[in-house]
Amino acid sequence: MHFSIQNILFLLVAVAGFGLFAWQVRKIRANILVGRDRDMSGHVNERLWKTLLVAFGQQKMFKRLTPAILHLIVYIGFIVINIEVIEILIDGIFGTHRVLSFLGPLYSLLTGTNEVLGALVVLAVAALWWRRNVKGVRRFTGPEMRAWPRLDANVILYIEVVLMMALFTMNAADLKLHGASLPGAFPVSQFLTGLLPDSPTALHVLERVGWWAHIVGILLFLNYLPSSKHFHIIMAFPNVYFSRLVPQGQFSNVDSITHEVKAMMDPSYQVPAPATEPDGSAAAPTPFGAKDVNDLAWTNLLNAYSCTECGRCTSVCPANITGKLLSPRKIIMDTRDRVEEKYNAPLIFNPNLYGKEAKHDPQEQLDRENHTLLRGYVTPEELWACTTCNACVEACPVNINPLESIVEMRRFLVLEESAAPNSLNVMFSNIENNGAPWAFSPSDRFNWADDLFVAEK
Amino acid sequence: MAELTAKRQVSVPMMADLAARGETPEILFWVGCAGAFDDRYKRVTRAFVRILEHVGVNYAVLGMEESCTGDPAKRAGNEFLFQMQAMQNITTLNGYGIKKVVTACPHCFNTIKNEYPALGGEYEVIHHSTFLQQLINEGKVKAEGGESFKGRRITFHDSCYLGRANNIYEAPRAVLEVLDADLLEMKRCKTNGLCCGAGGAQMWKEPEPGKKDINVERAEEALATLDGDADVLLNLQGVESTAPVLPAGSNRGGSVIAVACPFCMTMMADGVKNKERESDVQVFDLAELIASAEGLNA
């Protein structure tokens, strides 16, 4: 053990890195909790099983094989290589060198696997970069994928390559310095030693540079996550756990409306007392549906933080395919931008709303009255293009439900603003007056049965 | 026809009449607004009743006591109107002590099955595709003695509210199996099925501005599948197809797009018309196909 100033420095860096991350996570937790309450407790076994299949097992990724395999390599690489981070942390704090080497053959297996996975990750990341930037996969484009989201997607790939390079620099220099006496197996680095200088001093410096770059890189990456779509590596798990278990066609019933309707049909029905603040005063009435992010359920906001902007939802959306303005991915990205604008922002906050990449008329943005999720970010035209077909819900690899947010905003438009398209208002009044969405007389409802014959066999 | 088939007039049993006699039917056939008013879908309602009469199921309908389930209002965001409709229907159904509901409309099916229970309406709800599958499995319907579909091409269009919304993919296909036809799957089928464009209350409004109507995109896919036209299929991503209206040397008359939903029926039929293919491709509901294969039309 060589305890030195380096170890104190490392301890400070590690504490700062994890501390900053914890501070950012607290802000995001607060953002999610501004959403309306929704009871998602219970069904623990069913939820755990689903998390195991969909989040951990990436079940829904395998609907598209090529990206699924590339993603799986990076994902497994991430999990396994992070075991080595435990060693780095211990070595860094206590001044040890490869502390896990007492594991013997197991240590060789671990380091060997890490090296192979590291090389595969570099290849997979190169393929992913090519798909995004050269091949031009259609779902990586679209109005919401300019500016920050586009840069963010590439930054993640670059950081992953830098981290792998640091790992290989550290291992190759260590291997050249210690030769065969170095514990562990290095199937990739053994071919890289020739590229390094022969001077032991230079090798020692290189080994340290690689070591520091790897761990500092990881800490920086960790703190980059809350500003990035890459946050999905953490949020996918709670998001899948808290996703809906009911059939996709089942929409929520609004309880406050149930009370009103029951009271209308049965005058003796007792409507529950309105909610009160802790001090006993009446709570502000909550609107029907959603105008802004805090009118959505907390699970809808959790969705926004789990989105990795892959665009599978948008690429299967019938409205989007046929050129309508609606993009389910944009609804989810807008939700995250808006909650961070209104409440807590992470370290980097660069919403797509402003600047030359703006999606909306600048005059509209300045209109503070309407600067909410609905209208400020999401236009009624987008919402009315939805066929509620659930293709986006089915497509999402981490069980995000854009449809719920769309319907909540439609509810606000209809119930609070009476702002439905005119043809839908006609349909509503037909149902009210005729009990059918078309203007037919209820007395004609049974005419279909006239002169009906069946062949006798 | 060489010999005259005997036929009898059907007097559709009304729930109110049964209740007056103190009887309860085995199933309540929920007709739905499209089934009652839409001229095209009335033929599906009649075909389904012929099947019910043929197999001798003890059934009844609500007739004029039926009202919209509230589905279009709910999908459009009008929760208040939905719950008004729901409570009214639940009062009617519970008043008659209904236990089992069968409907030919996936929207009615989804709403009654999934959204009525929380408002006090709990029934066993079955879509007619599942019901027909049961009749076939029990040997009560054999698809014999009527029109032959042998060798004809049929492709099934999945309805969102049957498929993704309620995971019913196999029942309609099992029903089509007995026709002994040439069943073809569209590329976007089952969980990946493309909406016809009518869901979410789109049926009652003009589509938003875009480059194409959804039902045309879907009709093109269905037609290209029936034609075996790989080029059109490859290029279908919202791009208007430039394929000739009728492929040269086409001799594929009598191909069928099978549907199981009144709105899909309208949208697919309009799409086929848009492509000027109504002369050789027809859109039929499962119940119509079974009724004519069983020779029940009279």
UniProtKB/TrEMBL annotation, chain A:
The keyword Zinc does not apply. Residues 298-328, 376-406 form the 4Fe-4S ferredoxin-type domain. SUPFAM superfamilies: alpha-helical ferredoxin (SSF46548), Respiratory nitrate reductase 1 gamma chain (SSF103501). The chain crosses the membrane at residues 6-23, 68-94, 106-130, 151-173, 209-225. Pfam families: Fer4_9. It comes from the Bacteria. Keywords: 4Fe-4S, Iron, Iron-sulfur, Membrane, Metal-binding, Oxidoreductase, Transmembrane, Transmembrane helix. The keyword Ion transport does not apply. This is 4Fe-4S dicluster domain-containing protein. It comes from Hymenobacter guriensis.
